[in-house]
Amino acid sequence: MLNMKHTLPILLFIFAFPLFAQTDARIYDIINKVSAERIKNDVTTLVNFGTRHTLSDTISETRGIGAARRWIKSEFERTSTDCNACLEVFYQKDMVKKGDGQRITKDVWVVNVVAIQRGTKYPNRFIIMSGDIDSRVSDPVDYTSKSPGANDNASGMAGTIEAARVLSKYKFESSIIYVGLSGEEQGLYGGKGLAAYAKEKGWDIVGILNNDMIGNITGVDGVVSNRDFRIFSEPVPPTETEEQRRARRFYGGEVDGISRQLARYVHKTTKTYMPEMNPMMIYRLDRFGRGGHHRPFNDAGFAGIRIMEAHENYTQQHQDIRLEDGIAYGDVLEHVNFEYAKKLTAVNAINLASIAWAPPAPTTVEIGGIVEPSAKLKWNKVEGAVGYKIYWRDTTSPTWDNYRYVTDTTEHTLNGIVIDNYFFGVAAVGKDGHESPVTFPNAVFR
C-alpha cells in the first residue's frame, strides 16, 4: 500500500509543475514545420532576380528590386489566402532624395513589404520579424552589376517568409508582423521608415527580431558550426533620459535595457525548446562599427535585436563575383546552408509564438529593501496573467538564473535575498506557461 504521507507531496509537485515549466507541445510542432526546402526555393528565387540593389530596376518583372518586392508581397498574399485572409499585406514606403546620404545617387522610393497577423486579444501589440530585401556588390552605389545576395540577405528574407507560412496556421493573442525591409545597404532607410510609421500609428511594439545573414556555417575564422548563432543587443535604450541615466549609477541597470531583455528571452526560449543550439548573447548593438536594421527601432525607443550566424565569411559579403588569388569571392547560392537557415528560422518562429501567446509584460516594477535583509518588489496587475515570475541573478550573470513563481498578488518579499547582491525583474505568465519578457525595476520605494 502506498504511504500517503510521502505520496501527497509528489502529487502536489506533479500538479504544480505545469505552472513552473514553460513547455508547450505546439512549439515543437512549429519547429518541425519549418522547411529547409521551401527556404532553399525562396533564396533561389531571390538570387535569380539578378540584383536587389535599392536603386535597381523597378519596372522589370524578372530583374531588380521592384520584381523582388512584388514577388515577396505575392508570397505573403499566397500565405494569407491559405489561412483565410489572416494576413494584412501592404507596402509601406518613403521617398529618399538624391544626396540624402552618400549612397543615394538618385531619388528613390524605399519600399517595405509588410504582413500583419492580428492578435485576438491585443491587436495593437506587435512582435516583429524582419529580413532585408536589398543586396549589393563591392561598390555600394553600383546598382546594375550582378548581386545575388544569397546569404546577405536572401537567407533572412526567406526565413521571414517561411515563418509567416508556419505561424499563419495558429491563432495568437498578440499580433505578429513579418516584414521585408529595403534600403539597408544604403543607410537603414527601410527600418527608419517603418519605425516612424509605427510611431505614427501608435503601435505597441514588444520588439523586432532582425535577421541579417542566417545561412552561413563556415567562418573566415576557420570554424564550421551549424549550431552557433549570435544575438546582438545594446545595453540600454539610446532614448533614456538624463534622470534615468543618473538613477542607474545608484540602482543598476547598465545591461538591463529593453533590447537586452529581449535578447535574454530569445536565449532562454531557444535553450528550452532547441537545446542543441548555442545562442551567443553579444553585448553590443551590432558587429564592431557596423549596423543592422534593428538599430532604427532602437533609435525610436523600441526593443530590437539582431539574430545572425556566428561565424561570418567576409569573402562572401558585399563582394563583386570574382576569382582572386585562388579565392572565390561573392555572395552566391552554393555558400548557403539551408538546414542551418531552417534552424535559425525556427528560433525566430518559436520566439514570435511564445511572445504572441504570452500576456504583456508589467509596465511598472518597483523595488525596495534598502538596508534590509530581503528584497521587495511590487508591480502592476497584468490582464491575462495567471501568475508572475520574480527573477533574480548575480550582478555578473548574463542570464536570469533564479525565480519564484507567485499568483494572486502584485507584490512579494524575497526573504533572505539581499537587494545589494543581485539584479531583479518580473515577468507575467499566461495560462499556457508562456512568459512576457522580463521587466527590470523602473521605480524604487522605501
TrEMBL record:
EC number: 3.4.11.10
InterPro entries to which the protein is assigned, alphabetical: FN3_dom, FN3_sf, Ig-like_fold, M28_fam, Peptidase_M28
Enzyme class: hydrolase
Record carries keyword Hydrolase: yes
Chain segments annotated as coiled-coil in the UniProt record: none
Main location: secreted
Cited Pfam families: Peptidase_M28
All residue ranges annotated as the Fibronectin type-III domain in the record: 361-446
Tagged with keyword Nucleotide-binding: no
Cellular localization per UniProt: Secreted
SMART domains, A to Z: FN3
Gene Ontology molecular function, alphabetical: aminopeptidase activity; metalloexopeptidase activity
One annotated Gene Ontology cellular component of this protein: extracellular region
Signal sequence annotation: 1-21
Top-level taxon of the source organism: Bacteria
Gene3D superfamilies attached to this UniProt entry: Immunoglobulins (2.60.40.10), Zn peptidases (3.40.630.10)
Keyword terms, alphabetized: Aminopeptidase, Hydrolase, Metalloprotease, Protease, Secreted, Signal
GO BP annotation list: proteolysis
PANTHER family per the UniProt record, alphabetical: METALLOPEPTIDASE M28 FAMILY MEMBER (PTHR12147), PEPTIDASE M28 DOMAIN-CONTAINING PROTEIN (PTHR12147:SF26)
Protein name per the record: Bacterial leucyl aminopeptidase
